[in-house]
Specification:
Chain lengths: 489, 521
């Protein structure tokens, strides 16, 4: 306890350290060593190397917990925790970051904005996410959120000459700063009530408090508002469609997958852990947010013609489904959240990847009509897109079904029948807009777009995302085991 | 590999071979698709010959782990009801594939691939004994059907395709919630995760929960059947689908709903299925469906839409029979499901024949076809009479038995269903009269060619089958006798002790139905 920086501290911090180190190194290399535009491609390998080491450090943490068979490893006097939950989420972040890195290459080339710091920022954002999944101390969590958010503000506005990108970054920044204020307020109230910033201590203090404490209620409301904003759940979703549409498409994928997962990790730790005794206070609020997310997300997506906006609204509705697991709050619900996010990483990134590989110079390829008759021009892309969309809609035997299965099961187990029926019916609504895309690709007459030119990054990306979407759907046993055993301890 | 798995996966294997063929070889693709369909039918032979009628339980059972931590298994097996429906599926596949030879000209490979995928889904639905496996196949059917309607359909195909998909999906996700409730009940009561039907039979649930699960499943199945207020997707889907799609929809897809009632709702939720209110609601909807469907048929200007609405009416008989909850009603319902597949399948093929020649479905465009197409007129007459339930043809056997069952349950039900039969005969004969009899009123019909050999071959299986059921239905009743007895015994324990065996059961060779429960597992 008294030692300043113990080996345990180092062990639990290592993945984040590596990410930060490689992230900063890429910024330096880009500036000093590889200034020529044609040399930028080496930076992507450097970024992947960083991911490899970070992944290795994570794997060692995983082995350590397995070998010692201990539920968790606490470090920095309860500031960080290494447990199955944090490792599972960090695995999601690694997968998302690697996928985004390899699919960005061609996109940035096409846009003429290939700057090395892109890869550095991806790693730095992931570094912030690490603290969201592992942090058990309010300031650590807050800094993690800000590190992630600030890098995303830059990434969203990465297309410097594109007005939409700039506008998106500005909107995201202003609203994001606002929500961070809410979050900081909530955290400070929690500190004011309990006199500690460490979650275990806070939990112990809060358990003594009556549920009717107005100060506590205020703390719960503000914290929830701040986090729901980050998750992109209604009614705090206003930024999402604009940011998703304006951002470079790989960043959109990263934002919708990893940033959402990281924020959900904090929600789970806070609300199913620390604030669990006060469920009576937050469950109704969360239920309202879920129903709003499902309604607004699904119904707004119906009328979109821009694919990125459509996927943005669909991602709002997916946030709703994920939060349903939180409302159920039992083991199935928790497993459901983990599996949902894992699956979502692959299917959603895959869908964005199709858009990326259809994009060409002077041609956005973001409209539904741009996909008209895709089956004739590049059948492979059309089939892959159909697979991802079916999975997003939750049709078996794709991975999306397993995710929805768990969420529905947890609701039924805990007797939330009304919510379950609402969520189930919205599946049918969502299929309507996903199938508008399918219709364009398979049933409409061919449009003008040239056939896609997949690069090696896209090939690898497609292989990974499609394989994961199909394999998890057909044989989900390994991932269920992984999620299950991680959470059991 | 056991015969059932062979039958289930042969179409998929054929699908992979089909995908390997080059798209330019149109004849080769068509030939292979037809060979696949025949192969699919051949795989049914071991099931038919090997089926043991004296055993009411599931046969050809296969079981393997699929997702152990969720308790989901690859668990298949069939009883008499599923056997008949699987054979119907295989025969329909042959007919549908052959009927597409001329009608489908573009995107051939994709077309036949969709037909084969559809076949896998349908067979899987009837063979699954694990609820999630069933659900997976149930959903698998949606996608190929969506494309069949959406790509190769009529003028309003896009609307019809998505309507079909959304309706069915909305029903099936609610069904999923019902399934999950059963599963979580099993988990709390026995501590093991499972979706096996026979394990779920052991559940004891409070009545309100049985009701909730019943309605959740009901909506899923009722949309598929489709029962009265849920039927609106059907006229659009049927009308816009290509001929083969309509035939498969009518002959097999609708039966998935009625099969669901028989396999899941009744045995798993006996108290809810016996509940007075529930039975009255469901029977009420069936009766409305019978009469409403028949009356709407009288109004139709569109030949295909008329046939589509006649399905609503005929399927009303099937659900009426099921919820009479006695052996006659249920057995009649199963036979009627088979009959409806045969006769409505033929009617859709008939529409397909004239549509291919004239590219219109307006009834008023036709008239006096018998003069130019005598063979066609004969086949059409068989189809009409079989659908109208003329004795000696198949339709009579099913409808009569259902009415017998309904009469036993409540004589008013039978009384209200009978007008459905009468109006049924009316709209079918009137259709026949307007299109086929009389003088040729439209000059365009003067040069229509009669049925070709290929088209005759398309109709032949259905006509022969219609006669065989109509003339000698006994083997069919024997096949389903034990499984039906099991269902009745489950829903109304002691039914067979209380009353003398009904005539249909008494004439069967192994009439000792109350012991059937013993041989169940």
């Amino acid at each position: 306890m008294n030692q300043f920086y113990t080996p345990t501290d180092h062990f639990s911090l290592l993945p984040a350290l590596l990410l930060a180190l490689f992230g900063c190194a890429i910024l330096m290399l880009d500036f000093f060593v590889l200034p020529h535009p044609r040399q930028k491609r080496w930076l992507i390998f450097f970024a992947l190397l960083g991911e490899f080491f970070a992944g290795l450090a994570l794997y060692r943490q995983y082995r350590f917990l397995e070998d010692q068979s201990i539920p968790a490893l606490r470090a920095f006097s309860d500031g960080l925790i290494i447990d199955g939950f944090s490792i599972f989420f960090n695995a999601i972040f690694v997968a998302a970051a690697v996928l985004v890195a390899i699919i960005s290459y061609r996109y940035l080339e096409v846009e003429g904005e290939h700057h090395g710091e892109f890869y550095g920022l991806i790693l730095l954002a992931q570094c912030g996410m690490y603290f969201l999944a592992s942090g058990t101390e309010l300031v650590t969590i807050f800094i993690g959120i800000e590190l992630m958010a600030v890098t995303f503000y830059i990434l969203v506005g990465f297309l410097r000459s594109d007005r939409r990108s700039n506008e998106a970054a500005m909107k995201y920044l202003l609203l994001g700063a606002f929500s961070s204020g809410f979050l900081a307020y909530g955290f400070s109230l929690l500190y004011a009530i309990t006199g500690s910033t460490r979650l275990p201590k806070i939990a112990a203090e809060l358990a003594q408090r009556p549920a009717t404490d107005p100060l506590l209620l205020l703390a719960i409301v503000t914290t929830l508002v701040g986090l729901l904003f980050k998750v992109g759940a209604a009614p705090f979703h206003m930024w999402a469609p604009d940011a998703y549409e304006g951002a470079p498409t790989p960043v959109t994928a990263y934002l919708s997958v990893a940033s959402k997962a990281a924020s959900v990790a904090v929600l789970v730790r806070l609300f199913l852990g620390t604030l669990a005794p006060h469920r009576i206070n937050w469950e109704p609020m969360l239920a309202v947010a879920v129903v709003l997310s499902l309604t607004i997300g699904n119904f707004s997506a119906l009328s979109q013609t821009n694919l990125k906006r459509l996927l943005a609204f669909s991602s709002i509705s997916h946030a709703g489904y994920i939060l349903l697991g939180l409302i159920a709050g039992n083991r199935t619900g928790l497993t459901g959240i983990c599996i949902y996010l894992f699956v979502y990483t692959f299917m959603n990134t895959g869908a964005f990847l199709v858009l990326i590989s259809l994009r060409q110079k002077g041609m956005t390829g973001d409209d539904i009509d741009d996909l008209n008759g895709l089956i004739h021009r590049s059948p492979g892309h059309a089939l892959l897109m159909a697979l991802f969309l079916l999975s997003l809609g939750g049709i078996p035997p794709t991975a999306g079904f397993i995710a929805k299965y768990y969420i529905f099961l947890s609701l039924v187990e805990t007797g939330h029948y009304a919510l379950a029926i609402t969520a189930a019916l919205f599946v049918a609504v969502s299929i309507y807009y996903y199938f508008r895309i399918v219709r364009a690709m398979f049933l409409n007459e061919a449009g003008q777009l040239l056939p896609a030119l997949p690069g090696w990054g896209a090939r690898v990306g497609f292989a990974v995302t499609a394989l994961a979407t199909l394999a998890i759907g057909l044989y989900p046993e390994p991932i269920i085991r992984f999620a299950g055993t991680s959470l059991l301890r | 590999m056991s015969p059932l798995s062979l039958a289930l996966w042969t179409p998929l294997a054929c699908l992979f071979v089909l995908l390997a063929l080059p798209s330019s070889q149109k004849t080769a693709i068509k030939l292979w698709a037809n060979i696949s369909a025949v192969l699919g039918l051949l795989t049914m032979l071991p099931l038919i010959t090997g089926y043991d009628r004296s055993n009411g339980g599931f046969q050809f059972v296969e079981r393997a782990e699929w997702i152990p931590s969720l308790g989901i298994q690859y668990y298949i097996g069939i009883d008499g009801i599923s056997l008949l429906l699987m054979v119907l599926t295989a025969v329909t596949a042959v007919v549908a594939t052959l009927s597409s030879w001329e009608a489908i000209q573009d995107r051939l490979k994709q077309y036949y691939a969709m037909l084969l995928l559809l076949q896998v889904g349908m067979l899987g639905v009837f063979a699954s004994l694990d609820f999630i496996l069933f659900y997976v196949f149930w959903e698998l059917v949606l996608v190929p059907m969506y494309f069949l309607i959406g790509v190769w359909g009529g003028p309003r195909k896009l609307y019809a395709a998505i309507k079909f998909f959304l309706y069915t999906l909305a029903g099936s996700v609610l069904m999923l919630l019902g399934i999950l409730t059963l599963y979580s009940q099993h988990w709390t009561q026995f501590g093991t995760p499972t979706f096996e039907i026979d394990a779920l039979l052991r559940l004891t649930m409070p009545f309100w929960m049985q009701q909730w699960v019943f309605w959740a499943l009901f909506i899923g199945f009722a949309i598929k059947v489709p029962m009265f207020p849920f039927h609106t997707w059907l006229p659009d889907a049927h009308t816009e689908a290509p001929t083969a799609g309509s035939v498969i929809l009518a002959a097999v897809l609708l039966k998935m709903g009625t099969y669901g009632f028989l396999r899941f709702s009744l045995p798993l939720l006996p108290q809810a299925s016996m509940d007075r209110t529930i039975v009255q609601v469901v029977v009420g909807l069936s009766l409305i469906g019978i009469l409403y469907g028949a009356l709407v048929c009288l109004m139709q200007q569109d030949w295909k839409r008329l046939v589509a609405y006649s399905s609503v009416s005929h399927l009303g008989f099937c659900t009426l029979g099921i919820f009479s909850l006695n052996p006659n009603g249920i057995a009649g319902s199963v036979i009627q499901q088979l009959n409806h597949g045969i006769s409505t399948g033929m009617l859709f093929l008939i529409v397909g024949v004239v549509y291919e020649r004239r590219h219109t479905r307006e009834i008023s465009e036709y008239g006096g076809l018998a003069h130019r197409m005598p063979l066609f007129a004969t086949v059409f007459a068989f189809a009409v009479l079989s659908s109208a339930g003329l004795p000696l043809l198949n339709g009579f056997v099913g409808e009569f038995t259902i009415l017998q069952g309904a009469f036993e349950a409540n004589r008013w039900w039978a009384a209200m269903a009978v007008p459905g039969v009468v109006i049924g005969a009316a709209y079918l004969l009137w259709l026949y009269q307007r299109t086929t009899l009389g003088q040729i009123t439209n000059a365009k019909n003067n040069h229509l060619a009669d049925l070709s050999w290929r088209e005759l071959a398309v109709f032949a299986p259905f006509i022969l089958w219609a006669f065989s059921i109509g003339l000698y239905p006994k083997p069919y009743f024997e096949i389903i006798e034990r499984p039906v007895a099991r269902i009745v015994e489950r829903v109304r324990p002691g039914y067979y002790q209380d009353r003398p065996p009904s005539p249909a059961l008494a004439q069967a060779p192994h009439a000792a139905p109350h012991t059937a429960q013993g041989g169940a597992r």
